[in-house]
Amino acid sequence: MIPALSLILACQLAGEILSRALQLPLPGPVLGMIFLLIAMSVSGKVQQIVRPTGQFVLQHLSLLFVPAGVGIVAHLGALREHGMGLAVALVISTMLAIVVGAAAFVAVAKLTRSDADD
Amino acid sequence: MTDPFKLWSYLSSEPLLWLWATLIAYWIGDTIFRRVNRSPFANPVMIAVVILGAVLLMTGTPYQRYFDGAQFVHFMLGPATVCLAVPLHANLPKVKRALLPIAAGLIAGSVTAIVSVLAIAKAMGAGPELLASLAPKSVTAPVAIGISQSLGGEPSLTAALVILTGMIGAITVTPMLNLLGFRDWRARGFAVGVAAHGIGTARAFQVHETAGAFASIGMGLNAVLTAFLAPVVLSYFG
């Protein structure tokens, strides 16, 4: 657990440093994910160390969005002011983006014969 | 006995109470979610947010004071994002075989997300500041806030819109794609990662591991693409 956390935080730290130093549009944790992916591809030892902790943390991924989600109450005024328009825009746009994205993925997978194997 | 009001003002200003409340609210949300056979409509994030929001409003607790306690949970978002490398690594061979579908799904999903939200909101009378706050709504919160700032939006409003988008995506994706007959877990996961970032990704992991891994990729790639696309698209809605 401790070696795994140290490794995960090291990747995040490296990501934060790179993101800020080069002023990249990607946040530190996303770069950290890429670093950890590279480390796992290179070393079987890293895979062994990180896998159980990684799986544990991701099992509870939803929980981590709760504090930011409660921030909605701080914006109830602005949200209510534009209530109907905002609700319609968010719901339709999000559903449309999911369907169009999935349809484009499936269409190109068929064209290039890279179909799912499971 | 101590004055209960003094006790309350002590407890409500310390991190312990709100950290505990966050865990309990999520626990209730997750229990309800399991009781109703993991129905997407009982999204545990949404339930926890409603419970905590109601408690804050009823007790007159400012969000900032709540967040002082809840920040310990919030902090784990960074390390958890790094951990997405674990399922990604397990699915790397599948990802390598699907590079073209990934590119197509990314561009189609990202453009649709930005153009449609701006078009609908503008038609319904949204002003320039609200449009700028809405443009990055499908992107993971830290990146969306940066994009919103550079476009002249209101960053904290963007954070709220991002979370709402995530919950909408997490709730609608399964019934909608079932109805339309999509069976490819890669496509289903990837599309919800692009359109509904981390909350959509968390939902994808609840359904299928491959979907979750592809959702992580969708979320990461769309953060980059939207940073480039949002200013361009927004300029057409000026």
UniProtKB/TrEMBL annotation, chain A:
Primary place of residence?
A: membrane
**PANTHER family with a match to the protein in the record:** HOLIN-LIKE PROTEIN CIDA, HOLIN-LIKE PROTEIN CIDA-RELATED
Query: What membrane topology is given?
Result: Multi-pass membrane protein
Give the UniProt keywords, A-Z.
Cell membrane, Membrane, Transmembrane, Transmembrane helix
List membrane-spanning regions: 29-46, 58-78, 84-109
Please identify the protein, giving its name as recorded. Answer: CidA/LrgA family protein
Cross-referenced Pfam families, in alphabetical order?
LrgA
Q: Where in the cell is it found?
A: Cell membrane
The scientific name of the source species is Thioclava sediminum
From TrEMBL, chain B:
Domain of life according to the entry: Bacteria
Transmembrane residue ranges: 15-33, 45-63, 69-86, 98-121, 157-180, 211-237
Q: Does the keyword Transmembrane apply?
A: yes
Q: Where in the cell is it found?
A: Membrane
Predominant location: membrane
Q: Which UniProt keywords apply?
A: Membrane, Transmembrane, Transmembrane helix
What is its membrane topology? Multi-pass membrane protein
Q: What InterPro entries would the database entry show?
A: CidB/LrgB (IPR007300)
The name of this protein is: LrgB family protein
Question: Organism source for this protein?
Answer: Thioclava sediminum
